Fold these 2 entries.
Entry 1:
Amino acid sequence: MRTRQPLRRALVATTAHDRLSEELRREVADELNIGDLEPLSAAGADLVDHSAKGNFRALGKRFAKDTPRVAAAIAAADAGALAAALKESGTATVVVDGEQVQVSEAEVLVSERPKEGWSVVNEQGETVALDLEVTPELKQAGLAREVVRTLQEARKNAGLEVSDRITVWVTSTDAELSDALGKHAEEIAREVLAVELHQEAPVGVTLVDVAEGTEEDLQLSYWLVKA
């Protein structure tokens, strides 16, 4: 996922979220290029799919010849419930031939996989879940960021000062990018310090010291001059 692609939200552990001030949440969101930072409880459902299987070596020490039956019971159990019980108390209950049997964390191998559309990581006791769904609106915002990157590089290559104002002309043969240029024109102009942003080629305009180029990946052509 490109870092310039805005995403809708990231979720963090509720206790961690509650300890952050609104100012810090906004700063984290800006740094991650996401719309909002929310607590995990906002997801409304578990973000991770679990699977569980028996650790035959550990089970064998306690269950000996019954190990295959206990392992089969572990595999047949609700993996999410097993994971939750093991995390809470270090033990969980499975049903072996109609009887309840307790198993420990060492005897169960639990694996986690983020559900589709999410990237989830747990490190040093903290969990962060990134919502990877890219809506059409977010995709357009990402395209606008790519245009800003292209124009900023053009400014730099032209030897312009950081504070120099510019006039820009941009065109694209890609309909989606053209739409994004229209919807995000003010944002693009603000980011590149453009006093004017024209969504057309500078036909009939005499330009002095013009910086021009194309970005093939974006199907973008641009021209810019110091204002």
Note: Residues 137-226 form one domain.
Entry 2:
Amino acid sequence: MKTIRVEEGSGNVFADIGSRNPQEKLLRAQLLSAAQAVIKRRRLSQSRISEMTGLKQPEVSNLVNGKFTAFSADRVASILSLLGYDVEVRVKAKGARRQPDVHSARL
């Protein structure tokens, strides 16, 4: 029987793999995931997303397909706002929780 070594992650895959700016990347990924959930839940077509946000079709495609590198965290937060959501980021002292905590609430 083979032994499998398991290592517990930090909660931030970007930090675990040694990526530069892991907190910013995690925040961006969380915001992008929230935007995709809104789009799916509301069954928004790409043309409707474009109308609501002013994004051009290739940008909408990047958003819908989760192209992580195409957007900054600020940009995704702005897109969520244009879709009718408030974005809240909580900041806590180190040790309390390592990764940003992102919540979106419908306006």
Note: DSSP finds five helices and two strands in the chain.
